[in-house]
UniProtKB/TrEMBL annotation:
<dbReference type="GO" id="GO:0006890">
    <property type="term" value="P:retrograde vesicle-mediated transport, Golgi to endoplasmic reticulum"/>
</dbReference>
<dbReference type="Pfam" id="PF04053">
    <property type="entry name" value="B-prop_COPA_B_2nd"/>
</dbReference>
<dbReference type="InterPro" id="IPR001680">
    <property type="entry name" value="WD40_rpt"/>
</dbReference>
<comment type="function">
    <text>The coatomer is a cytosolic protein complex that binds to dilysine motifs and reversibly associates with Golgi non-clathrin-coated vesicles, which further mediate biosynthetic protein transport from the ER, via the Golgi up to the trans Golgi network. Coatomer complex is required for budding from Golgi membranes, and is essential for the retrograde Golgi-to-ER transport of dilysine-tagged proteins.</text>
</comment>
<keyword id="KW-0333">Golgi apparatus</keyword>
<dbReference type="Pfam" id="PF00400">
    <property type="entry name" value="WD40"/>
</dbReference>
<keyword id="KW-0853">WD repeat</keyword>
<dbReference type="InterPro" id="IPR020472">
    <property type="entry name" value="WD40_PAC1"/>
</dbReference>
<feature type="repeat" description="WD">
    <location>
        <begin position="93"/>
        <end position="125"/>
    </location>
</feature>
<feature type="repeat" description="WD">
    <location>
        <begin position="136"/>
        <end position="178"/>
    </location>
</feature>
<dbReference type="InterPro" id="IPR015943">
    <property type="entry name" value="WD40/YVTN_repeat-like_dom_sf"/>
</dbReference>
<dbReference type="GO" id="GO:0030126">
    <property type="term" value="C:COPI vesicle coat"/>
</dbReference>
<dbReference type="GO" id="GO:0006888">
    <property type="term" value="P:endoplasmic reticulum to Golgi vesicle-mediated transport"/>
</dbReference>
<dbReference type="GO" id="GO:0000139">
    <property type="term" value="C:Golgi membrane"/>
</dbReference>
<feature type="repeat" description="WD">
    <location>
        <begin position="224"/>
        <end position="265"/>
    </location>
</feature>
<dbReference type="InterPro" id="IPR036322">
    <property type="entry name" value="WD40_repeat_dom_sf"/>
</dbReference>
<keyword id="KW-0653">Protein transport</keyword>
Amino acid sequence: MRFDVKRQLFARSERVKGIDFHPTEPWILTTLYSGHVYIWSYETQSIIKTFELTDVPVRAGRFIARKNWIVCGSDDFQLRVYNYNTSEKIISFEAHPDYIRSIAVHPTHPFVLTASDDMTIKLWDWDKSWKCVQVFEGHSHYVMGLAINPKHTNTFASACLDRTVKIWSLGSPNPNYTLEAHETKGVNHVEYYPQADKPYLLTTSDDKTVKVWDYTTKALIATLEGHTSNVSFACYHPELPIIISGSEDGTIKLWHANTYRLEQSLSYGLERAWCVSYQRGKQGIAMGFDDGAVVVKMGREEPAVSMDGSGKIVWARHNEVVSTVIKGGDATLKDGAPLSLPTKDLGSCEIYPQTLAHSPNGRFVSVCGDGEYIIYTALAWRNKAFGQALDFAWGSKDNSNDYAIRESSTSVKIFRNFKEKSGGLDVGFHAEGLNSGVLLGVKGQGGIGMFDWETGNLVRRIEVEPRAVYWSESGELVTLACEGTFTSSFFTRDYMQDSCWTC
């Protein structure tokens, strides 16, 4: 799977034990082993607020954005609440007779859950002057983590060093059931799958593994092995099919959430990884380490989308595909104004769509992702063709059923009318990407080769690295859009003549 990992914040500090995203501001909250708490702006790369709470570790902290508060729990047993705008202390009290390990804030009710080394979980109601309205007992060791089920917010999960995860319901003092999650070591972290289509949760342990569970059947779905030390956390990316795990081995590992294959391993040189937070509906992931915090953006904010020549649009919401139609002629609309359009669910896709593209005549839509491609009919969303591919490109308007795929850096294949052309394409260099059009564009090694669909011959190699290629309706002009420049070429079957402009 291909996705960008862009660093938004690299902040050195004392050991970060707790981390949280603000839901609307470009801020993260970090709670430190030193007893300090920082609010960072990952836009300006600066600390915008400091709280010197105590001289013992602050292991957990959360924003309560609807009240402009932060809530923090520490090793002096205190739960502290501050207004992050005014720095006013709202309340401070002893919440447990031992260290506070984890905090969860209910998304709609005025509730805060706390977990402690006293082996209990407590529910606090801030509308009742922070009264403890319920105690959950049943664990036999330190309770390390809490997670509220995003699909059923009346239930939550707890992770414990007694090697179990317990599922609870608000209002009931006894657990609904217990998962014997890890056989030999305690459970450090628990996290729910954030979407509606899978009843899954993740657990991590000092046994160096991440486990994926179905919480309805209590079945173990997968065990992810690859870390070389205790695994501190794991979570699902809120938009991409990725599981992110962090360990005391200092690495962050990215796993495919469907195949459970290890896709990438990252190291930021900040020693042991301790905590994680993500933004629902966005791309940000924040991680805390021994020597600081990192915020990265994975993937892109905009969805995979395609529009045909008549204004029909398809785009992907995770694995679901939606369509709409843009109709011109409304002279009252201004450039850049948002459109309110009715949408129609087309269906789902077997792979996670990273690109969508209409065929030139609009009858088909290609989906590419996860190293595979599928061609669907645009109206009924029926499977027409499929196969292995890293990239996909359609042919010209005159040959709408022609396409090419890139299987690897050394293999590009052309299909004429959905049938593979014998012999493949002799590219002559390492292929890194494809572009659709009258000529097939093959990018690689600092340039782009333009190939004839019929003969497979190289018409011209241009020594630029375009981000996009645009052909005119006539098929005689092509523009290569590059970083800061664009190149326009006049094409006939005999030659290509080009000019370059800087913009």
